[in-house]
Amino acid sequence: AKILLLNGPNLNLLGTREPEIYGSTTLADIEQRLAKQANAAGHQLDTLQSNAEHLIIERIHAARDEVDFIIINPAAFTHTSIAIRDALAGTAIPFIEIHLSNVHAREPFRQHSYLADIATGVICGLGVDGYDLALQAVIRRLEQH
Ligand code: DQA
């Protein structure tokens, strides 16, 4: 099956960006590790990081009828984007929302997500482990079908 990993704005800076919050692993490291894990389970992982809301929306549209599951760290768009919510709802592709940091332990504006209530599940606060755990959960769900 096909799995799509989406990362939102500023996550291209992972590894150097506020490492005390986001850790020292780069996004390239995460994407490579997840692609390997997906391949080992017989699946294919596509990835996109974008700082542009419309590119994320257009990738979700293109994923319709092509992608079986999405793993998304929407970054700051989590807290602002009705449009990304509508894209996910409109294509009806199941997705897991992830955050590196524990958004509930941070500023109040990070505690609301426009996506969480329509997600299959949400993982936050576990750093890069959250990406691995999300992929494991996706693989198990794909195997149940
Ligand atoms: C984030 C949390 C968001 O609040 C923030 O805007 C990010 C990263 C995380 O992974 O912890 O850019 O999604």
TrEMBL record:
Q: Where is the signal peptide?
A: none
Residues annotated for substrate binding in this entry: N73, H79, D86, L100, S101, R110
According to UniProt, the reaction catalysed is:
3-dehydroquinate = 3-dehydroshikimate + H2O
Enzyme Commission number(s): 4.2.1.10
Alphabetized InterPro entries for the sequence: DHquinase_II, DHquinase_II_CS, DHquinase_II_sf
Look at the named UniProt entry and state the broad enzyme category this protein falls under. lyase
Q: What is this protein called?
A: 3-dehydroquinate dehydratase
The scientific name of the source species is: Sinobacterium caligoides
